[in-house]
Amino acid sequence: MAVDPLIELRDVNKYFGELHVLQDVNLTVGRGEVVVVIGPSGSGKSTLCRAINRLEPIHSGSITLDGQPLPEEGKALAKLRSEVGMVFQSFNLFAHKTVLQNISLGQVKVRRRKKHEADRRSRELLDRVGLADQADKFPAQLSGGQQQRVAIARALAMDPKALLFDEPTSALDPEMINEVLEVMQQLAQEGMTMVVVTHEMGFARSAANRVVFMADGRIVEDRTPEEFFTAPRSDRAKDFLSKIL
Ligand code: ADP
Ligand code: MG
């Protein structure tokens, strides 16, 4: 399949002091593609996501979005962060703002929408993630699963070109995992470009176009879920799968 590349990493290297945390990473994410990233703790998955959003600078190599190098600072960087939304394990909602305000804020500040337009869009998105009746609550009044769906709505409110998810369900009680995965599955079906770090192998099998397996800062395998789960090539991946499946 010919892909129309949206995100491209070429020979990316990053260090934390002596630790070589991303080692010659090459990855292309096509428009509309869902790439699931898996691998042991400490293998560099979060750093990879953060590098794509430029929350972490890299030491060598290049990362491009739509063919353009990632901006390093200023307004262009703020724009990038809105175009490549990120959803974290820990929700990161503003505790002293309502659900509606959480979703509208960035639209007004970064997208320069009028408040009533932003609020209208926020309500549409709340409806889409199944939370139309929660607009005036504060984050602490919601369950973890609901908070994470608000975080997804907030990222969507910026009309992102792509969304990055870093273990979005890892902090959730088991009964709340599916309501978040269902929203993500829906986005995938609608053609959103997504990079998803997750241990939810059911999601990887059903939603991913490709599974990227990382170990020790390297991409060890980059294949279809079908190929990866039925016949992993590397010992690292075999070992990892035997522990989690
Ligand atoms: P993963 O998400 O796969 O668990 P991370 O990308 O979070 O892995 O971390 C990769 C490695 O980099 C780990 O050894 C981690 O301890 C280290 N690391 C992550 N962030 C920092 C940091 N800000 N400073 C120093 N080391 C870090
Ligand atoms: Mg991580």
UniProtKB/TrEMBL annotation:
Q: Does this entry carry the keyword rRNA-binding?
A: no
Q: State the reactions this protein catalyses.
A: a polar amino acid(out) + ATP + H2O = a polar amino acid(in) + ADP + phosphate + H(+)
Q: Which residues form the ABC transporter domain?
A: 7-241
PROSITE patterns recorded: ABC_TRANSPORTER_1, ABC_TRANSPORTER_2
Q: Keyword Nucleotide-binding, does the record have it?
A: yes
A cellular component term (GO) from this record? plasma membrane
Arranged from A to Z, the UniProt key words for this protein are:
Amino-acid transport, ATP-binding, Cell membrane, Membrane, Nucleotide-binding, Transport
A Pfam family found in this protein is: ABC_tran
- InterPro entries, per the entry: AAA+_ATPase (IPR003593), ABC_ATPase_HisP-typ (IPR030679), ABC_transporter-like_ATP-bd (IPR003439), ABC_transporter-like_CS (IPR017871), MetN_ABC_transporter-like (IPR050086), P-loop_NTPase (IPR027417)
- What is the first-listed, main subcellular location in coarse terms? membrane
Its placement in the membrane is given as: Peripheral membrane protein
EC annotation from Swiss-Prot or TrEMBL: 7.4.2.1
GO MF annotations in UniProt: ATP binding; ATP hydrolysis activity; ATPase-coupled polar amino acid-transporter activity
Record-stated family? Belongs to the ABC transporter superfamily.
- The name this protein carries in UniProt is ABC-type polar-amino-acid transporter
Per the UniProt record, the source organism is: Streptomyces asoensis
